[in-house]
Amino acid sequence: MSALKQIVFPLCCTAALLSACNKKDAAVSGSETTANKSELTLDQQIVIARAGFSPTYAAKVNGGYLVEGDILLSDAQLAGFTRELQAFRKAGPITEQYQSTYKVGSLPRIVRIAVDAGTSDPLFIAATDIAIARYNAQGLQLTFQRVDKAVAADIKILGEDLGTSGGSTILGVSAGFPDSAGNPATPIKLNNKYYSNTYKDTLTFATTIAHEIGHAIGFRHSDYMNRGYSCGYTPWNDFLKKLGIDNYNEGDGGVGAIHIPNTPVDPEARSWMLACSDGTDRPFTANDSIALRQLYH
């Protein structure tokens, strides 16, 4: 099953942050509201931390657990976390580009993307076209093509009123990661009440869409090992340490967290796959391009 996702960055420790996959604007499923959230038990928080996700602000919601403001995990996924722990802590750097276990297969391949955002279609289409152009400029074996909403698509980008969580507007939810058959995750849901045709920052919105497409084709957050870097969340390992729990194993969240060779050891503030950002436009950095080519060149 797929995990659902979203983004914010260091400046995000202050109050009003927006971005691609925003921490502040926690993502839940389209039908989710704060009315059906509940606090987690300590045992549930430990399961989340053992899986490599920060339990900060985590909550029980309809359909699973809302983690890090942008990831919806099912009970089945959480049950599998302890079986899939990987010993990343013993060797290697802690903040690099990471991929999930599966990536999109049958290369070279054209991934068709359809947009259905209701009255927000003009904005969504413009931002999606920019995101697609950024990927296609990389010269990968994976290329993207926007198709009409009536056409069968590999990834659907949907506009919905996603409501609020903790008093913050929910900007979006991604469908997670590719499946074992090599298909990209779908759909990506974005808030068409916030991202309406009066929203003017098309480039920043394109970054949001590019980030969610990144998850859909197999990229995990580039600060996967320490969400405290970009989001201000208590790192999962610090949470476990305070409880006296052995944490030498790094969890893969049930979907894998495999280091991509030749990506940097140190955090990169402008990466398109940071868990959180400062709400600005972030085209691919040189290291982002390396990560994309490692997977899909």
UniProtKB/TrEMBL annotation:
Q: Give the source's domain of life in one word.
A: Bacteria
Any idea which GO molecular function terms this record carries? metallopeptidase activity
Q: Which SUPFAM superfamilies match?
A: Metalloproteases ('zincins'), catalytic domain (SSF55486)
Q: What Pfam families does the record tag this protein with?
A: Peptidase_M57
Q: Which UniProt keywords apply?
A: Hydrolase, Metalloprotease, Protease
Presence of the UniProt keyword Protease in the record:
yes
Indicate what this protein is called per its UniProt record: Zinc-dependent metalloprotease
Provenance organism: Chitinophaga nivalis
Taxonomy of the source species: Bacteria, Pseudomonadati, Bacteroidota, Chitinophagia, Chitinophagales
